[in-house]
Amino acid sequence: MTTKIYIPRDSSALSVGAEKVAVAIATEAKNRGLDVEIIRNGSRGLYWLETMVEVLTANGRVAYGPVKVKDVPSLFDADFINAKPHALCLGLTEEIDWLKKQQRLTFARVGVTDPVSLDDYLAHDGYNGLKNALKLSGAEIVKTVTDSGLRGRGGAAFPTGIKWNTVLGCESDQKYIVCNADEGDSGTYSDRMIMEGDPFVLIEGMTIAGVAVGATHGYIYLRSEYPHALVTLNEAIEAANKAGYLGENVLGSGKAFHLEVRRAAGAYVCGEETSLLESLEGKRGLVRFKPPLPAIEGLFGKPTVVNNVISLASVPIILDKGAQFYADYGMGRSRGTLPIQLAGNLKYNGLVELAFGATLRELLYDFGGGSATGKPIRAVQVGGPLGAFLPESQFDTPLDYEEFTKIWAVLGHGGIVAFDDTVDMSKMARYAFEFCAVESCGKCTPCRIGSTRGVEVIDKIRSGKDHAKNIQLVRDLSDTMLNGSLCALGGMTPYPVLSALNHFPQDFGLPAETQAG
Amino acid sequence: MYIIVALYNCNNSRFGDISLPDSNTPQDINTVINRLVAEHQHRPGALLPLLHAIQDNIGYVPETAYPQISKALALSVAEVHGVVTFYHHFRTHKPGRNVMHICRAESCQAMGSEALEAHAKKCMNIDYHQTTEDNAITLEAVYCLGNCALSPSVMMNDEIYGRVSPSDLDALIAEAKA
User: Fold this and answer.
1) Which of A34, A37, A258, B83 has CB 3.0 to 4.6 Å from B4, enough for a Cys bridge?
2) What CATH code would you report for A330-420?
3) ipTM for the complex?
């Protein structure tokens, strides 16, 4: 009998040798005359255990990890293909505590299925959402999404249903669905995991959006740093086209939906939706003034839904299981689940999907296992390079959009980057300005000039030059950028800067007790 | 007995399939660009896909191609230049045989990327945006590769490497120079 072995093709798994492990296992099996089928799945998201190899048994999948090439002969010697014990054996994958404690809705299939097998997708509840959607009117689909409470997972947290409703209400000969897959926020990788691990769920979500608002063409704007996601997405789109899930007549409904991947070109600002649209039109990614909203005048001047990967990938389960099923997860106005990405200096980094409401402390210690270096965690940055730095005293904040707003922080795209006590926060503040200077589109003055002046002022503070005056100057400059920038790049750079200054004043040569904000 | 090996290789993008030999002439480049312009010019928002195609094929976007591109897309040469230079990904000069990107973003900083950057610059005796004397490696910075769970990260051509130590980096450099 053929034994099924799962070895990830996820680019993080590949970054620690998954490809070499796959070759070694295939070669060893051949040499030993064993009958195995190797399936290249996405990652389960337990990245410290990559390369994680799973073997399918009658009781479920048994995991081994982290597997290196040198471990392969001993795995075969131990008869791992019959799930026999080995030092690297982790037991049944589904029983691994770290995974078992999660609530995986959007990520239900990631790491489980073969990402480019449509049959596998269908066998795991795939396309149930679209089939339901095709029985509903556009307005009914939009109402379901609105009722689910789904908010934009890209960072802005704008209600997805309301955005869709605006596009639905526009009369136009052409409308577009644009997926923002320009996942440029450092510390985030959930979009990549979806695109590499379960691309059909994104394709299905975009198709549902198209059917709902009457758009016949979709674009996935994919960052150029994700070559593996490009390959996976294109393979999946081709399979969906062949099987009639995309194209002129989606599942015989008479409705058309065409989908195309467009590569970005390394500009962070193109994650801002209007800049993204400019880029898709073939221009420099300069931010547009709003209004008009993209929902009314978006791509090529037509009504356009612009949603993040995770927002769109959360739609199929909402249409499959119903708005209430999704809304039953979460707290307050943050409904459903958030795929949280643990990054930086933590022992157990990976993807944790949980209902809103878990605290940072649970994430950092129960899941993250504390710092990788074993030193105390001094600061965490949540929500990418424009997110605030939080000190230990704020680790009990629940992950909820409104709770984060209360402490002048953002959840953003759900990335959490941990730093141990060797971090110099004035350096991080300098980096925030420097990053803004590198990535500014240049359209508005606060961002274009302010970022460069910010680096200079922080340098003066760090060298002690006119210290008090320059501390005041950096606050004034931050105020100008916060209130005068055209988009979130300039407008939110003060979050990491001021949070570093307010929570860690000693790193700026101020007494620790000076916490004036 | 049979074995199904589903190996996965990603070698069809960016630098993996450069179709011109090192000694290409301006005429060769011109022919390739004309072909790519004809392939892409009628797509909506054609400029970025076209620039990607050019860079995938010849490794960079030569400024000498601006007039061809601008004419085909009804843009000014200034507009084409503006787009090429706006995006970090596009380059107007031929890079070294390999391109190494070191991630400078926060997660990698938390795991020692600064030391890695310094090590790379010292070993290769170059700064960012420069190429080693033997033309083996061009060094670039990148701000996040989405490999933040396994920081620090480095990308060599299209392959990402996680948890890169200075000695891992030495090995990558040696391999690229070989």
Assistant:
1) A37
2) 3.10.20.600
3) 0.94
